Amino acid sequence: MPPMQFICSVFFVTLLVERTHITEGVRWLALGTQAADLVNLKTVRMCDKLKGLVKRQRRICRENIEVMESVKKGAHLAIEECQYQFRLRRWNCSTVNAKNIYGNVLKAGTREAAFVHSISSAAVAHAVTRACSSGQLQKCGCDRSIRGKSHLGFEWAGCSDNVAYGAAFCKAFVDSREKSKRMAKTSRALMNLHNNEAGRRSIVENMKTKCKCHGVSGSCELKTCWRSMPTFRVIGNVLKEKFDGATEVVERKVGTRRQLVPLKKQYKPHTTADVVYMAASPDFCEKDNKTGSLGTYGRFCNKSSKAMDGCDLMCCGRGFRTRRKVITERCHCKFYWCCYVKCKQCTREIEEHTCL
Protein backbone atom coordinates (compact mmCIF):
# COMPACT_ATOMS: atom_id res chain seq x y z
CA MET A 1 0.00 0.00 0.00
CA PRO A 2 1.35 3.45 -0.84
CA PRO A 3 2.24 5.64 2.15
CA MET A 4 -0.07 8.33 3.54
CA GLN A 5 0.63 11.69 2.06
CA PHE A 6 1.65 14.86 3.86
CA ILE A 7 -1.72 16.56 3.55
CA CYS A 8 -3.26 13.87 5.76
CA SER A 9 -0.66 14.66 8.41
CA VAL A 10 -1.43 18.36 8.49
CA PHE A 11 -5.14 17.58 8.58
CA PHE A 12 -4.58 15.48 11.69
CA VAL A 13 -2.77 18.44 13.21
CA THR A 14 -5.83 20.52 12.34
CA LEU A 15 -7.96 18.09 14.31
CA LEU A 16 -5.49 18.32 17.17
CA VAL A 17 -5.72 22.10 17.43
CA GLU A 18 -9.48 22.31 16.98
CA ARG A 19 -10.21 19.49 19.41
CA THR A 20 -7.93 20.96 22.04
CA HIS A 21 -9.48 24.41 21.74
CA ILE A 22 -12.99 23.04 22.13
CA THR A 23 -12.61 20.43 24.84
CA GLU A 24 -9.82 21.86 26.98
CA GLY A 25 -9.47 25.58 26.25
CA VAL A 26 -13.00 26.50 27.34
CA ARG A 27 -13.00 24.30 30.44
CA TRP A 28 -9.78 25.69 31.89
CA LEU A 29 -10.01 29.26 30.62
CA ALA A 30 -11.00 30.79 33.99
CA LEU A 31 -8.68 28.73 36.20
CA GLY A 32 -5.42 30.64 35.77
CA THR A 33 -1.83 29.75 34.87
CA GLN A 34 -1.81 26.32 36.46
CA ALA A 35 -4.83 25.28 34.40
CA ALA A 36 -3.20 26.68 31.25
CA ASP A 37 -0.15 24.51 31.93
CA LEU A 38 -2.43 21.49 32.22
CA VAL A 39 -4.01 22.36 28.88
CA ASN A 40 -0.55 22.48 27.30
CA LEU A 41 0.37 19.14 28.87
CA LYS A 42 -2.76 17.50 27.48
CA THR A 43 -2.10 19.08 24.09
CA VAL A 44 1.43 17.66 24.09
CA ARG A 45 0.04 14.23 24.90
CA MET A 46 -2.35 14.59 21.97
CA CYS A 47 0.65 14.85 19.66
CA ASP A 48 1.67 11.33 20.68
CA LYS A 49 -1.80 9.92 20.07
CA LEU A 50 -2.28 11.34 16.60
CA LYS A 51 -2.45 8.86 13.77
CA GLY A 52 -0.81 9.77 10.47
CA LEU A 53 2.29 11.44 11.94
CA VAL A 54 5.69 9.77 11.95
CA LYS A 55 7.81 9.74 15.11
CA ARG A 56 9.80 12.86 14.21
CA GLN A 57 6.64 14.82 13.39
CA ARG A 58 5.20 13.96 16.79
CA ARG A 59 8.36 15.20 18.46
CA ILE A 60 8.26 18.46 16.49
CA CYS A 61 4.58 18.80 17.40
CA ARG A 62 5.34 18.39 21.12
CA GLU A 63 8.19 20.90 21.01
CA ASN A 64 6.32 23.50 18.95
CA ILE A 65 2.72 23.47 20.15
CA GLU A 66 2.27 27.19 19.45
CA VAL A 67 3.31 26.73 15.83
CA MET A 68 0.72 24.01 15.22
CA GLU A 69 -2.02 26.62 14.87
CA SER A 70 -0.13 27.98 11.86
CA VAL A 71 0.27 24.45 10.47
CA LYS A 72 -3.50 24.10 10.76
CA LYS A 73 -4.03 27.36 8.86
CA GLY A 74 -1.56 26.21 6.23
CA ALA A 75 -3.47 22.95 5.74
CA HIS A 76 -6.73 24.81 5.12
CA LEU A 77 -4.97 27.36 2.92
CA ALA A 78 -3.50 24.59 0.74
CA ILE A 79 -6.88 22.96 0.20
CA GLU A 80 -8.61 26.25 -0.63
CA GLU A 81 -5.91 27.31 -3.09
CA CYS A 82 -5.78 23.89 -4.75
CA GLN A 83 -9.54 23.98 -5.29
CA TYR A 84 -9.33 27.52 -6.68
CA GLN A 85 -6.54 26.68 -9.13
CA PHE A 86 -8.29 23.53 -10.42
CA ARG A 87 -11.89 24.74 -10.29
CA LEU A 88 -12.19 24.65 -14.10
CA ARG A 89 -10.49 21.30 -14.66
CA ARG A 90 -11.75 17.72 -14.62
CA TRP A 91 -9.85 17.05 -11.42
CA ASN A 92 -10.97 19.93 -9.24
CA CYS A 93 -9.09 19.03 -6.07
CA SER A 94 -12.20 17.65 -4.41
CA THR A 95 -11.87 16.53 -0.79
CA VAL A 96 -13.24 13.08 0.01
CA ASN A 97 -13.08 12.56 3.77
CA ALA A 98 -11.11 13.58 6.86
CA LYS A 99 -9.01 10.41 6.94
CA ASN A 100 -7.97 10.41 3.30
CA ILE A 101 -8.55 13.97 2.15
CA TYR A 102 -7.99 13.62 -1.60
CA GLY A 103 -8.85 9.94 -1.81
CA ASN A 104 -6.65 7.71 -3.95
CA VAL A 105 -5.52 10.55 -6.24
CA LEU A 106 -2.30 10.87 -4.23
CA LYS A 107 -1.36 7.19 -4.37
CA ALA A 108 0.33 7.44 -7.77
CA GLY A 109 3.15 9.87 -8.49
CA THR A 110 1.10 11.99 -10.90
CA ARG A 111 1.17 15.72 -11.64
CA GLU A 112 -1.80 16.12 -9.30
CA ALA A 113 0.05 14.47 -6.41
CA ALA A 114 3.08 16.62 -7.20
CA PHE A 115 0.99 19.78 -7.04
CA VAL A 116 -0.63 18.80 -3.74
CA HIS A 117 2.80 18.30 -2.16
CA SER A 118 4.17 21.58 -3.47
CA ILE A 119 1.12 23.68 -2.54
CA SER A 120 0.86 22.06 0.92
CA SER A 121 4.52 22.70 1.70
CA ALA A 122 4.25 26.27 0.44
CA ALA A 123 1.10 26.88 2.50
CA VAL A 124 2.68 25.72 5.77
CA ALA A 125 5.81 27.82 5.14
CA HIS A 126 3.65 30.83 4.24
CA ALA A 127 1.40 30.50 7.30
CA VAL A 128 4.30 30.03 9.74
CA THR A 129 6.18 32.98 8.24
CA ARG A 130 3.08 35.17 8.49
CA ALA A 131 2.65 34.19 12.14
CA CYS A 132 6.29 35.16 12.82
CA SER A 133 5.89 38.62 11.28
CA SER A 134 2.62 39.32 13.10
CA GLY A 135 4.12 38.53 16.50
CA GLN A 136 2.02 35.44 17.16
CA LEU A 137 5.02 33.18 17.87
CA GLN A 138 7.55 33.49 20.68
CA LYS A 139 10.24 31.53 18.81
CA CYS A 140 10.50 33.91 15.88
CA GLY A 141 9.73 37.42 14.75
CA CYS A 142 10.65 39.73 11.89
CA ASP A 143 13.79 39.02 9.88
CA ARG A 144 16.42 41.15 11.63
CA SER A 145 19.25 40.03 9.35
CA ILE A 146 18.28 42.68 6.78
CA ARG A 147 19.58 45.93 8.24
CA GLY A 148 21.57 49.02 7.31
CA LYS A 149 21.74 51.05 4.11
CA SER A 150 21.08 49.46 0.77
CA HIS A 151 23.41 50.07 -2.19
CA LEU A 152 20.32 51.58 -3.86
CA GLY A 153 20.25 54.36 -1.28
CA PHE A 154 17.36 53.37 0.98
CA GLU A 155 17.38 52.15 4.57
CA TRP A 156 16.34 48.61 5.46
CA ALA A 157 13.73 48.96 8.22
CA GLY A 158 10.25 47.80 9.12
CA CYS A 159 9.31 44.15 9.54
CA SER A 160 10.76 41.92 6.84
CA ASP A 161 9.01 38.56 6.61
CA ASN A 162 11.11 35.84 8.25
CA VAL A 163 10.75 33.37 5.40
CA ALA A 164 13.96 31.61 6.48
CA TYR A 165 12.32 30.46 9.72
CA GLY A 166 9.02 29.56 8.03
CA ALA A 167 10.75 27.50 5.34
CA ALA A 168 13.08 25.81 7.84
CA PHE A 169 10.24 24.79 10.16
CA CYS A 170 8.19 23.57 7.21
CA LYS A 171 11.11 21.51 5.93
CA ALA A 172 11.70 19.92 9.33
CA PHE A 173 8.04 19.02 9.84
CA VAL A 174 6.81 18.27 6.33
CA ASP A 175 9.86 16.39 5.02
CA SER A 176 10.04 14.10 8.07
CA ARG A 177 7.59 11.64 6.54
CA GLU A 178 9.62 11.14 3.39
CA LYS A 179 12.81 10.70 5.45
CA SER A 180 11.31 8.05 7.72
CA LYS A 181 12.69 4.50 7.49
CA ARG A 182 9.61 3.26 5.65
CA MET A 183 9.84 5.88 2.92
CA ALA A 184 13.47 6.99 2.71
CA LYS A 185 14.65 4.54 0.04
CA THR A 186 11.71 4.86 -2.35
CA SER A 187 11.57 6.82 -5.60
CA ARG A 188 8.31 8.36 -4.47
CA ALA A 189 10.04 9.85 -1.43
CA LEU A 190 12.55 11.56 -3.74
CA MET A 191 9.71 12.98 -5.80
CA ASN A 192 7.79 14.21 -2.74
CA LEU A 193 10.87 15.82 -1.21
CA HIS A 194 11.65 17.59 -4.48
CA ASN A 195 8.11 18.98 -4.78
CA ASN A 196 8.02 19.98 -1.11
CA GLU A 197 11.14 22.05 -1.75
CA ALA A 198 9.67 23.49 -4.96
CA GLY A 199 6.74 24.77 -2.92
CA ARG A 200 9.02 26.51 -0.44
CA ARG A 201 11.20 27.92 -3.22
CA SER A 202 8.14 29.50 -4.81
CA ILE A 203 7.89 31.79 -1.79
CA VAL A 204 11.60 32.58 -1.49
CA GLU A 205 11.95 33.38 -5.19
CA ASN A 206 8.90 35.67 -5.24
CA MET A 207 9.70 37.84 -2.23
CA LYS A 208 9.16 41.54 -2.96
CA THR A 209 10.74 44.72 -1.64
CA LYS A 210 8.18 47.19 -0.28
CA CYS A 211 9.08 50.77 0.61
CA LYS A 212 7.72 53.81 2.37
CA CYS A 213 8.74 57.43 1.91
CA HIS A 214 9.33 59.80 4.84
CA GLY A 215 9.59 63.57 4.65
CA VAL A 216 7.72 66.85 4.67
CA SER A 217 4.53 66.91 2.58
CA GLY A 218 5.09 63.42 1.27
CA SER A 219 8.60 64.05 -0.02
CA CYS A 220 10.97 61.12 -0.09
CA GLU A 221 13.89 62.53 1.88
CA LEU A 222 14.21 59.14 3.55
CA LYS A 223 12.97 55.87 2.11
CA THR A 224 12.73 52.74 4.25
CA CYS A 225 12.13 49.30 2.78
CA TRP A 226 11.48 45.73 3.90
CA ARG A 227 11.10 42.30 2.32
CA SER A 228 7.57 40.93 2.05
CA MET A 229 6.03 37.65 0.92
CA PRO A 230 3.58 37.68 -1.99
CA THR A 231 -0.06 36.79 -1.35
CA PHE A 232 -0.74 33.07 -1.40
CA ARG A 233 -2.81 33.53 -4.56
CA VAL A 234 0.41 34.57 -6.32
CA ILE A 235 2.11 31.42 -4.99
CA GLY A 236 -0.82 29.32 -6.21
CA ASN A 237 -0.55 30.85 -9.68
CA VAL A 238 3.20 30.19 -9.78
CA LEU A 239 2.82 26.55 -8.76
CA LYS A 240 -0.07 26.03 -11.19
CA GLU A 241 2.20 27.21 -14.02
CA LYS A 242 4.86 24.79 -12.81
CA PHE A 243 2.23 22.03 -12.75
CA ASP A 244 1.41 22.73 -16.40
CA GLY A 245 5.12 22.61 -17.29
CA ALA A 246 6.08 19.76 -14.95
CA THR A 247 8.86 17.36 -15.98
CA GLU A 248 8.36 13.59 -15.95
CA VAL A 249 11.29 11.98 -14.14
CA VAL A 250 12.76 8.63 -13.13
CA GLU A 251 15.22 7.65 -10.46
CA ARG A 252 18.85 7.08 -11.48
CA LYS A 253 21.88 6.21 -9.43
CA VAL A 254 24.74 8.60 -10.09
CA GLY A 255 27.76 7.29 -8.23
CA THR A 256 26.49 6.57 -4.73
CA ARG A 257 23.67 9.08 -4.97
CA ARG A 258 20.07 8.49 -5.95
CA GLN A 259 18.57 11.34 -7.93
CA LEU A 260 15.73 12.18 -10.27
CA VAL A 261 16.48 12.79 -13.94
CA PRO A 262 14.15 13.56 -16.88
CA LEU A 263 12.54 10.43 -18.31
CA LYS A 264 13.63 11.39 -21.83
CA LYS A 265 16.74 13.24 -22.92
CA GLN A 266 14.72 15.82 -24.87
CA TYR A 267 12.89 16.88 -21.70
CA LYS A 268 14.16 20.08 -20.13
CA PRO A 269 16.35 19.60 -17.04
CA HIS A 270 14.42 20.55 -13.93
CA THR A 271 15.60 22.88 -11.19
CA THR A 272 14.88 22.76 -7.47
CA ALA A 273 11.99 25.17 -8.05
CA ASP A 274 10.26 23.01 -10.70
CA VAL A 275 7.49 20.48 -10.13
CA VAL A 276 8.24 16.89 -11.18
CA TYR A 277 6.13 13.75 -11.49
CA MET A 278 6.67 10.04 -12.17
CA ALA A 279 3.35 8.64 -13.46
CA ALA A 280 0.83 9.64 -16.11
CA SER A 281 -2.44 11.08 -14.82
CA PRO A 282 -5.81 9.44 -15.51
CA ASP A 283 -8.19 11.44 -17.68
CA PHE A 284 -10.60 11.87 -14.72
CA CYS A 285 -13.60 11.42 -17.07
CA GLU A 286 -15.17 8.43 -15.33
CA LYS A 287 -15.46 7.51 -11.68
CA ASP A 288 -12.68 5.12 -10.72
CA ASN A 289 -12.08 4.27 -7.07
CA LYS A 290 -8.68 2.79 -7.86
CA THR A 291 -7.26 6.05 -9.21
CA GLY A 292 -9.42 8.30 -7.07
CA SER A 293 -11.17 9.84 -10.07
CA LEU A 294 -14.66 11.13 -9.24
CA GLY A 295 -15.62 11.59 -12.90
CA THR A 296 -17.23 14.68 -14.38
CA TYR A 297 -20.89 13.64 -14.35
CA GLY A 298 -23.01 16.57 -13.14
CA ARG A 299 -20.14 19.08 -13.35
CA PHE A 300 -20.96 22.57 -14.64
CA CYS A 301 -19.35 23.47 -17.96
CA ASN A 302 -19.03 26.51 -20.21
CA LYS A 303 -20.77 25.95 -23.53
CA SER A 304 -18.86 28.73 -25.30
CA SER A 305 -15.37 27.85 -24.03
CA LYS A 306 -12.83 25.83 -25.98
CA ALA A 307 -10.62 25.42 -22.90
CA MET A 308 -10.72 22.63 -20.31
CA ASP A 309 -13.85 24.13 -18.69
CA GLY A 310 -15.72 23.92 -22.02
CA CYS A 311 -18.51 21.37 -22.28
CA ASP A 312 -16.71 19.33 -24.96
CA LEU A 313 -13.61 18.72 -22.85
CA MET A 314 -15.14 18.79 -19.37
CA CYS A 315 -17.83 16.28 -20.35
CA CYS A 316 -15.36 14.06 -22.24
CA GLY A 317 -17.59 13.98 -25.34
CA ARG A 318 -20.59 12.51 -23.49
CA GLY A 319 -22.71 15.61 -24.05
CA PHE A 320 -24.35 17.94 -21.58
CA ARG A 321 -27.72 18.97 -20.25
CA THR A 322 -28.97 22.58 -20.44
CA ARG A 323 -31.55 24.11 -18.13
CA ARG A 324 -32.86 27.63 -17.85
CA LYS A 325 -32.81 29.34 -14.47
CA VAL A 326 -34.17 32.67 -13.26
CA ILE A 327 -31.92 34.50 -10.83
CA THR A 328 -32.43 37.68 -8.80
CA GLU A 329 -29.53 40.06 -8.30
CA ARG A 330 -28.79 43.64 -7.26
CA CYS A 331 -28.70 46.14 -10.11
CA HIS A 332 -28.84 49.88 -10.91
CA CYS A 333 -26.94 50.65 -7.71
CA LYS A 334 -26.58 54.32 -6.78
CA PHE A 335 -24.38 55.99 -4.19
CA TYR A 336 -26.06 58.60 -1.97
CA TRP A 337 -24.12 61.26 -0.04
CA CYS A 338 -23.37 60.44 2.71
CA CYS A 339 -22.98 57.46 2.88
CA TYR A 340 -24.96 54.53 1.57
CA VAL A 341 -25.67 52.63 -1.62
CA LYS A 342 -29.18 51.85 -2.81
CA CYS A 343 -29.87 49.16 -5.39
CA LYS A 344 -32.83 47.71 -7.21
CA GLN A 345 -33.59 43.99 -7.55
CA CYS A 346 -33.46 42.67 -11.09
CA THR A 347 -34.30 39.23 -12.44
CA ARG A 348 -32.80 37.60 -15.48
CA GLU A 349 -32.79 34.19 -17.09
CA ILE A 350 -29.57 32.26 -17.47
CA GLU A 351 -28.57 28.90 -18.91
CA GLU A 352 -26.73 26.27 -16.88
CA HIS A 353 -24.92 23.40 -18.56
CA THR A 354 -24.05 20.18 -16.73
CA CYS A 355 -22.20 17.13 -18.00
CA LEU A 356 -24.09 13.92 -18.81
SS class: alpha+beta
How large a portion of the residues is in β-strands, by DSSP E? Answer: 15-25%
Calculate Rg over CA atoms. 24 Å
Number of helices: 9
Average pLDDT rating: 85
**Largest sheet, spatial ordering of strands:** 1-2-4-3
Please, what is the oligomeric state?
single chain
Q: What is the terminal separation in angstroms?
A: 34 Å
Residue share in helix: 25-40%
Largest sheet features: 4 strands, mixed
Order of helices and strands: HHHHHEEHHEEHEEEEEHEE
Point out poorly predicted stretches.
1-6, 11-33
General shape: globular
How many strand elements?
11
Description:
With 356 residues, the protein is of the alpha+beta class. Helices cover 39% and strands 20% of the residues. The chain has nine helices and eleven strands. The chain has helices at 6-28, 32-49, 55-63, 68-85, 111-133, 163-174, 187-204, 232-244, 311-314; strands at 148-149, 155-156, 208-214, 222-228, 247-254, 257-262, 276-277, 287-288, 293-294, 320-336, 340-355. The strands form four sheets. It has a four-stranded mixed sheet with strand order 1-2-4-3, with no helix packed on it. Helix 2 packs antiparallel against helix 3 (55-63), helix 4 (68-85) crosses helix 8 (232-244) and helix 5 packs across helix 6. The protein is globular and about 65 Å long. Mean pLDDT is 85; it is low at 1-6 and 11-33.
Q: What topology emerges from the helices and strands here?
A:
Blueprint: H1 6-28, H2 32-49, H3 55-63, H4 68-85, H5 111-133, E1 148-149, E2 155-156, H6 163-174, H7 187-204, E3 208-214, E4 222-228, H8 232-244, E5 247-254, E6 257-262, E7 276-277, E8 287-288, E9 293-294, H9 311-314, E10 320-336, E11 340-355
Parallel strand pairs: 2-4, 5-7
Antiparallel strand pairs: 1-2, 3-4, 5-6, 8-9, 10-11
